[in-house]
């Protein structure tokens, strides 16, 4: 008489416990490491410059106990830029994670499928009319980004944002909008076109509290609402049919997520201009660091984006002193190498198999 096996569960359970325990321990440690790295880059940004401020003096100034000169340098001159770099990077990382999940494609980030270029077109249209002010520029960027998203959605296939066709359509629309942006600048007054060209390079230089305060106020509600969309994002990862079977409202969920993603990109673009490849690379870095966590970690993507842009801005400001490069030049240089690796990676994987 054969009874049920008794040894298999005994040997399987400890291994299963170990495999389930690792993510719970690994994710907090990774989050803490990324957070501390962002803080370290922020402190380094406040300390470095034409006037070098020792780190203890930076901390005293942040605590309100610094001397007048140090307080002016740290709080008035450097802190707005130092805060904007990780904040805008986190916004781009979140936006990239949302769109890469919706498209189920690592190339489906807003700067590849045209949403960043569309936001640039909207902001350029405002700048070239002579209108000034952050609110008008941000509104133009938001309208341009949303209009581009609607156009790509209409041309790429209305049933779903997933699939190669949607990404290729976005790339084509991005190329068209890039030529439109160039045409807009050629037709503008020389002084205005020069200012717009500087903006399109992507730079955080000369940003003060008048830019940081409205940008951070615009990003705060978007960052707060994003965690509530995680469940919708996870359900949509299963595919439209499975999501519908589970009771999810697919069209409304995609529209809401796309709107938040475009708004995050538009706010970042309106402040610093187009900053390429941050939204593309940050979610994939988070996927690697949180590889035992299913899907793309939104918190990880935000922290990776913050670290990427803060680090790129520090390099742009200090690595080639006294010359300052636009931050967008650094992100493009690093992102080009990353994109090449991303494009060649799957083919190498296929050969190994």
Could you explain how this protein is built, in words?
With 353 residues, the chain is mainly α. Helices cover 76% and strands 0% of the residues. The protein is built from 14 helices and no strands. The chain has helices at residues 7-47, 55-62, 68-103, 115-128, 134-156, 164-186, 190-200, 209-225, 230-236, 240-245, 250-272, 278-289, 298-319, 327-352. The longest helix has 41 residues, at 7-47. The protein starts with 6 loop residues before the first helix and ends with a helix.
| Major beta-sheet overview | none
Oligomeric form = single chain
Straight-line distance between termini: 45 Å
Roughly what is the average pLDDT, rounded to an integer? 81
Which radius of gyration do the C-alpha atoms yield? 22 Å
Order of helices and strands: HHHHHHHHHHHHHH
List the helices and strands and how they pair.
Layout: H1 7-47, H2 55-62, H3 68-103, H4 115-128, H5 134-156, H6 164-186, H7 190-200, H8 209-225, H9 230-236, H10 240-245, H11 250-272, H12 278-289, H13 298-319, H14 327-352
Helix pairs in contact: 1-3, 1-13, 2-3, 3-8, 3-11, 3-12, 3-13, 4-5, 4-6, 4-7, 4-11, 5-6, 5-11, 8-11, 12-13, 13-14
């Amino acid at each position: 008489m054969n009874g049920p096996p008794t040894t298999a569960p005994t040997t399987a359970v400890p291994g299963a416990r170990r495999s389930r325990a690792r993510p719970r321990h690994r994710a907090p440690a990774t989050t803490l490491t990324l957070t501390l790295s962002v803080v370290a880059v922020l402190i380094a940004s406040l300390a470095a410059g034409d006037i070098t401020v020792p780190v203890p003096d930076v901390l005293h100034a942040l605590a309100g106990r610094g001397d007048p000169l140090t307080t002016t340098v740290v709080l008035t001159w450097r802190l707005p830029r130092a805060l904007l770099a990780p904040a805008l990077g986190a916004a781009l990382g979140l936006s990239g994670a949302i769109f890469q999940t919706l498209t189920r494609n690592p190339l489906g980030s807003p700067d590849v499928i045209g949403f960043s270029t569309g936001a640039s077109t909207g902001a350029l249209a405002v700048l070239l009319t002579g209108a000034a002010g952050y609110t008008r520029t941000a509104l133009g960027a938001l309208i341009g980004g949303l209009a581009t998203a609607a156009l790509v959605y209409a041309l790429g296939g209305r049933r779903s944002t997933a699939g190669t066709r949607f990404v290729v359509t976005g790339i084509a629309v991005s190329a068209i909008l890039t030529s439109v942006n160039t045409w807009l600048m050629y037709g503008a007054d020389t002084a205005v076109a020069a200012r717009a060209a500087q903006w399109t390079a992507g730079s955080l230089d000369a940003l003060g509290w008048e830019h940081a305060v409205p940008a951070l106020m615009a990003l705060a509600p978007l960052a707060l609402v994003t965690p509530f969309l995680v469940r919708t994002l996870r359900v949509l990862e299963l595919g439209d049919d499975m999501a519908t079977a589970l009771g999810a409202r697919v069209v409304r969920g995609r529209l809401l997520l796309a709107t938040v993603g475009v708004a995050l990109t538009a706010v970042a673009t309106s402040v610093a201009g187009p900053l390429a490849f941050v939204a593309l690379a940050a979610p994939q870095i988070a996927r690697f660091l949180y590889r035992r966590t299913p899907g793309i970690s939104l918190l990880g993507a935000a922290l990776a984006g913050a670290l990427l842009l803060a680090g790129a801005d520090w390099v742009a400001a200090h690595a080639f002193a006294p010359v300052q490069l636009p931050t967008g030049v650094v992100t493009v240089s690093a992102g080009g190498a990353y994109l090449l690796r991303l494009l060649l990676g799957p083919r190498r994987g296929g050969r190994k198999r």
